[in-house]
Each structure stands twice: as structure tokens, then as C-alpha cells.
Design brief:
- The protein is mainly alpha-helical.
Length: 514
Amino acid sequence: MKRNKFIKYCTLIAFTGLVACTNLDEKVLDEQLGTNLVNDPSNMIALINAPYASLRRTIEWYDYWALQEVSTDEVIVPTRGTDWYDNGEWQQLHLQTWTADHIRMKNVWEALNQGVSRANIAINYIGKFPSTATTTQYIAEARFLRAYYMYLICDLFGQVPYREAEEVDFAAAPTLLDRKGAADKIISELNAALPNLKTKAEVGSDHVTKGAAQALLAKVYLNYEVWTGTKKYAEAISACNDVINNTSYAVATDYWTMFQKDVAEHPEFILRVPMDDKVDMGSGSVWVNFTLHYSQTFGNLTSTWNGPSTTSTFFDTWDKVNDARYQDNRIKAECGFNQGFLVGQQYGLDGKALKQRNGDPLIFVPEMNLESSPENAGIRVIKFAPNSATTHQFSSPNDVPIIRISDIYLIRAEAKLRNSDAAGALADINYIRSKRSAAGKTLPALTSVTLNDVLKERGYELYWEGLRRQDLIRFGKFGDAWQGKPTTAATKAIYPIPTSALGANENIKQNPGY
């Protein structure tokens, strides 16, 4: 299935997501369009494309990614003069002083519930077509996608409005699942979908596969104790084993290969969102523009925004000599800067030292004040390589992995350690570290492993990939103090239900602490 061929169809039915699980802005499906679309099996791809399209909202830096990263020690967005104040929304995310009226709460709640709704529409109407191997496969994919969006809602907000696909009376309020109810429903859905999903070898990592379902099961089981108070670490280990034993996946021996431009399939990728220039899916997240200083323009990228940085708290934990994940220089000849962490004096493509707008040297430093900092404050991060010749400067040319195999090894390590298998956990951690030595260096193996070691390794491997908040919560560190943030209350581990959602569904109650 080539989803880029059906963008127009996706646009036509994108509004169907407004028939959301929260009754937000519900609209009646246009009868003529609905009849033409959902009664014609040739439109089946358009129906399944809609819930896939919602994955793009999970990789936009300013919405879901911001909730998972700016609220943590991995990302800080200091106000620099009048730049990046934005009504205080980035400061509030970092300080964890958000309210139910914060714009990101509303945007993410609606985007994820729209994903659930789109999946339901696909399940319902594809299920009315004559049964074939293809309809069976697509329904299984849609069930996974519905489960995935439910997983994200459960993690962020602790409550999941839910309808079965055939429940089309949108005047009736949906069922409201608490975290245990949602987790159990997600597990049930994934297990039901698994037998009818294809493998990565058959359909690629831009499709939902058996491996993706097994990986998501591992994630749910890993977080099950935080969500419900009941441990399911043995189940997490088993699900990880299913993925790790699949020869379609392999930990990269060269870490940075998966973050280059126009990379589609990669042995690390279990599930990815296709966004590279060759696919031309529209606007991707601007992974480079948003962090680089205004003077760090190059090629066709003429607009850089001097925004998100990392905290000194996170930066100071790194082995900056031996760990390949810290920095890589392969894009310098094209862009003038390295991948990984950008610190110190910055240079242009011509080798000349760059300057700030006031003429001072552009030297990125870790010192900053969240409320008021100079232009050079903050160490920048480039995870995805740009394309200097792109004709889409606000669309990064990178397929974005949302599940990859190294994460699964680290999930297994954590689950083993929490399940009293320290030796097994150590073996998994050291296996990842054995692949991550910088050129000419050796990243030392650990001789023992603690939970803090596992958290650190997850940070080194997965930084800026939208996972940090969930990790810090699971390790009991989300309320800790770090650069720019004091200690905060345990209630911040769940976001508030947006005010707009409370008004639309009387069954939803605000989370404690808000």
C-alpha cells in the first residue's frame, strides 16, 4: 500500500476524526460523501490511511512531543529576549505549572482521540465490505492503531473515552475507561489483532506488523504497575523476546545511520512514520529549524528559530569521549554543524566562527535562565540530519521511528531487573553499549546494573525521541528538580483533562491536583 498516493482521499475523510470519542465538535458524516466512500471497496485504502495519518500528530515537536519532552530534563525552551515566550507556554511545560487550559493539552487530547475515531471508522466500514485477506489485515492494522492512540491517552491523561467501532450513536456518551480498564482493553485488542497482522518482511515498518503489536504489548506491560499497581514484568519480558527473536530487527552497529535524511527501512525500525522528501507526505516536524541559532542557516534552510535546548542536568551525565551517541560529524561538510549535542563555538560551512545578532561569538553554553537568557544560552540537539538541498525547509526529510529494537532491549533489561534478574538486565544493557562506542574509543561495559543505570541508558539511547516523560515517571523521578525547574508534586505525573473535554462529556472528571 503506498499511502502517499492517497493523500487526497485522506484529506476528504480527515474530518471524520471530528466524530470524536469526547463529543468534541461532533459533526454528522456527509451522506453523499459517506455513501460514495464507505460503500465502495476500492476506497478501502483511503479508510485505513486516515488512522495512519494521525501518527504524524505524535511526532510534531510542538504538541505530543512537547508534552513528553519539554516537561523533562531532556528539553528546555528558555525565553531569549522576546523570543520563545509564547504566553509562557514553554515555561509552564518545563516548570510543570500547566493548567487544564494550556493549549497543548487541548491539541494533544483532540489529536489522539481523533486517531481513535479514525481507527473506529476504518474498522466499522471496512468490516462491511466482503471479507477478504486484505480486509482482515486492514481491520487488524486499524485495531492496533486504535490501541496505540488509547495507550498514549492513557499514559498522558489517565482516562480514555472509548466506543466500539459499531457504536455510531454519537449523541450517547462514550464509555470512560480508567487506566486499568484502558490497559486491559489495549492488551486484549493487540492480542486479537496479532494473528492477522503481517510481518515487517512482508509489508515494511511503515505498516503495523506483528512485531509492532508485540512491541506495544511490551510497553503496556512495562508501565502496567505505574498505571494499575499490578506488576506484569514477566509478560513484558515475553513480549520483548518475541520481538528480539525476529530476525527482521537488529540493533544498529552505526547509531547515526537511522537518523540520516531519506532513510526509509532500517534494521532498527519496528514502526516508523514516513516523512522523508522522497515520499513527500507534506509537512514533517522541523527537527533542525527549531533548535539552531538564527545565524546557522545553510543551503536552502534559510529560517532557523533558536529554540529548544537540553538541560545541563541531562548533558552532565554523558560520557562525552567514548559514547558515539553524544556527537557525530558526518553532516558537517554539508551543514556546518554536527549531529548530537551542539556545544561551544559554532562555525559556518566556510569554517568561519559564527556570531550572535549582537556581534558576540555564537558559543553555545549550558548556563541559562528559563525566564530570560541570551541568544547563545542552551546546548542544542540535532538528532535527525537535514537535507541542505530540500525544497521543503519546514519539513524534515526523515522517516521517524516511533518504536525501534534498541528500545525493546532496554525494556527487557528494565523488566528483568524489576523481576529480580540483574544478570539478564546487565547483559541487555551491555549488549546495547557494545554497539555504541565512538570511533577509536571503547564505551565501557557496566560491571553491575541498578535502576538508575537503566534510566541513564534509556536517556543516552533514546534522547529527544518522545519517551522521556514516561520513563521519568516509571523511575519515580518526574517530580525531581533539574535545570530551570524545582521539585514538583506527584500529581503532575498525569496531565489535566482539557477544559474543553470536561465541558463536552459529563462523565469525565478532572484529574487530582487540577
